Amino acid sequence: DLQICQHRAPTCCTKKMEESYQAAVRRERTQSIQALNFELKYMIVGHITAFQEAFESLLRFAENRTSSLFETAYRPMAKEAAEPVKELFTDISLYILGAETTVESAVLRFFDSLFPLVYSRLINPGITDLSEDYTECLRLTRQDINPFGRYSKNMVTELSKSLWASRMLSQALSLGIEVINTTEHAALTKECSRALVKMQYCPHCQGLTLIRPCVGYCLNVMRGCLASVSELDAQWREFISTLEYLTNEMAASHDLEIALLGIWNSINEAILHAQLNGPQLSATVDKVCGQPKQQEGNLSSASIVPVKEVTETQTFMMAHTSLNNKRREFISYMKRSRTFYASIAERLCDGDLVMRDSSTCWNGEDVV
């Protein structure tokens, strides 16, 4: 009553043993593919973590630098500006990690929150009435009167260009893991599990427990079993080329590090622009939002303080070098995995599974 290991000679197998063999080959096939995938997956997961750590390090550095701008040059509003600054960098981090948000909405939301502070603490430092209604009116007015000139738009453009490649790379790496996980658990067809039993376990039914499959026979069986997986070859090669393109984009003109480092300068220029145009802004705001309550006495507008370059470049350079090195290491490893799915059958037939350097092997029917 054997279905797979039928043979002319007497056999020590039963139908129940054949079923056990089918369960065994399914388990072994999954384990052998997992073992092959392990190094590749380990490298991708390791680099996702390393990239994220480097991103976070750069973001923290840029955030601290931006906060120090307010503490040194715009002290009257430093405390209140801390929250919008934090929100801006959280939004940037979420964008890089693939959240449904845009750089433009993050930057404009920041400037919406910044304008009431700049207006009431720097342009008109005598204002005492910062009611919710008045603050909201200032926020909405920002969109119409554009107090920060071209600087808010420039910041959107610069960040959008540089963060795009980082966001795409982050999503591409996650996609790579998803593909590998899917191929590990691809279901075996009935024909495939029967062919694997015939190749690996039918010799046992003849008492030939030490005989292993011939190399050519193993390759034929594995290629048949893995046809759907090896079809990924063209897409995998394209995926590696895309990773290479994205890592080059990140390192080239749309440099993430330079853009993040430039945030504090864009904000500083934007605030200076608003202060220089203070009288015109006040006249427009008074028409739209009404005149707020002023403190008694003659308070002059806060003086414009040019900001000196913050000298914390050592930390930044370390994060920058670390990110560049990780990019280079990663892409050179991934290029070596270009043929991963094309050569998967060959790799599974390598090693202990087949008989090498021996005059006898199993061809599916007999010992040859």
From TrEMBL:
It is a lipid-anchor; GPI-anchor. It is found in: Cell membrane. Cell surface proteoglycan. One of its GO terms (biological process) is cell migration. This is GPC5 protein. The keyword Cell membrane applies. One of its GO terms (cellular component) is side of membrane. It comes from Ptilorrhoa leucosticta. Its main location: membrane. PROSITE patterns: GLYPICAN (PS01207). The keyword Glycoprotein applies. Keywords: Cell membrane, Glycoprotein, GPI-anchor, Heparan sulfate, Lipoprotein, Membrane, Proteoglycan, Signal. Signal peptide: none annotated. Belongs to the glypican family.
